[in-house]
Design brief:
By secondary structure, this protein is an all-alpha fold. It is about 75% helix and about 0% strand.
């Protein structure tokens, strides 16, 4: 893949991810997914062009980490719900028990049970937070290498913002959103042709 193609694909992908975060579109999640795929394709192209495999492999590690984190998060959340409703005497898989949910005596829901359930929710949030930081770390490494190879410092800036955004709860989402815009600008800023020298040729002194 030529550098110009990788540059354009990466820029378009980053823009789609930037737009996909906004809850203004019905298929915003699909836009984000398409954008992510395009950015990965671009990362592969840059990795091949600059002979630096870390650009692509770290991006893949980030995606794998996010997927594994999502699976573990869902598993922990389901176990917490099963345990909670089990202690209420409800079968999580029985639809008839769900119809009787409103008839549960509030006295059976003790403070201890609520505390344990809230603890499970906190555990789920912590799992999400930890895996988000790990994924952001790999993204930072990938973009750091890309910044060094292309000479575009915005890649490094975007990587730092993504990592900081993953560390900071809630407010960090805004930083990650801004980082996606910077990432798009960075892709489109990559030079695909050698810079021509502007040094004037010395003229021979006339006698």
């Amino acid at each position: 893949m030529i550098l110009e193609t990788s540059k354009n694909i990466g820029g378009i992908g980053a823009i789609l991810m930037f737009i996909g975060v906004l809850p203004l579109f019905t298929y915003s999640g699909i836009l984000s997914l398409i954008g992510l795929i395009l950015v990965l394709v671009a990362a592969k192209g840059f990795a091949d062009n600059y002979k630096e495999s870390g650009i692509f492999t770290n991006a893949i590690y980030a995606v794998i980490t996010a997927i594994v984190g999502g699976i573990i998060t869902v598993a922990v959340a389901i176990m917490a719900l099963v345990s909670f409703f089990g202690e209420l005497g409800l079968d999580f898989t029985n639809a008839q028990d769900w119809s009787a949910l409103s008839a549960i005596d509030s006295q059976n829901v003790g403070i201890d049970l609520i505390t344990r359930f809230l603890g499970s929710i906190i555990l789920v949030l912590v799992v999400v937070w930890v895996f988000a930081i790990l994924a952001a770390f790999f993204v930072r490494k990938s973009l750091g290498l890309l910044s060094a190879k292309t000479g575009v410092s915005l890649f490094g800036t975007a990587g730092i913002l993504i990592l900081v955004g993953a560390v900071i709860p809630v407010l960090g989402l805004l930083l990650i959103w801004v980082a996606l815009l910077l990432l798009a600008i960075a892709f489109f800023s990559v030079r695909t042709t050698p810079t021509q020298s502007t040094t004037p040729v010395a003229t021979q002194a006339q006698v």
